[in-house]
Design goal:
By secondary structure, the protein is an all-alpha fold. Helix content is about 90%, strand content about 0%. It contains 4 helices and no strands. The longest helix is centred in the C-terminal third of the chain and has 37 residues. Bound molecules: adenosine-5'-triphosphate. Adenosine-5'-triphosphate binds next to helix 4.
């Protein structure tokens, strides 16, 4: 196993994450949302399995956001011209992020709302 090559791959992947964070407002929004949910989880008190679900959802949203950014870049690389297929590719990729983010938000509500109800009443 070439360890140096492995570390180089990590460096490239990290560069991709930094690029998306710097250039994509949606990615920064999801990072902010994840920080807020983490703080809320801390204050509310989640079980280990609930934290595992929340972390998995964070990872899923971040990963899809990165893939969406990659698709946007490839579409722009292929052609900067307006084309219905280019628009569809970007819209479908963005739709994938939205679908997972909405599912994550619903799961978040299922985890958090009963706990907040218990604290209030
Ligand atoms: N080449 C294109 N041809 C047709 N429609 C496009 C094209 N590029 C973008 N669009 C349409 O405009 C929308 C926004 O595209 P854009 O690349 O600006 O995405 P964005 O999410 O605003 O990206 P960024 O975060 O880089 O500004 C797309 O979802 C798509 O509907």
């Amino acid at each position: 196993m070439d360890v140096r090559k492995l570390f180089r791959s990590f460096r490239y992947a990290w560069r991709g994450i930094v690029h998306a964070f710097g250039r994509e407002q949606n990615f920064r929004f999801h990072v902010l949302a994840a920080l807020i949910v983490t703080a809320a989880g801390w204050v509310t008190g989640l079980s280990t399995s609930e934290w595992l679900i929340v972390i998995l959802l964070f990872g899923g949203v971040f990963a899809l956001e990165l893939v969406n950014t990659a698709i946007e870049r490839v579409v722009d690389l292929v052609s900067r011209e307006h084309h219905p297929l280019a628009g569809q590719a970007k819209d479908v990729a963005a739709g994938a992020v939205l679908a997972f983010a909405v599912a994550s938000a619903v799961i978040g509500c299922i985890i958090f709302i009963p706990k907040w109800m218990n604290l209030l009443f």
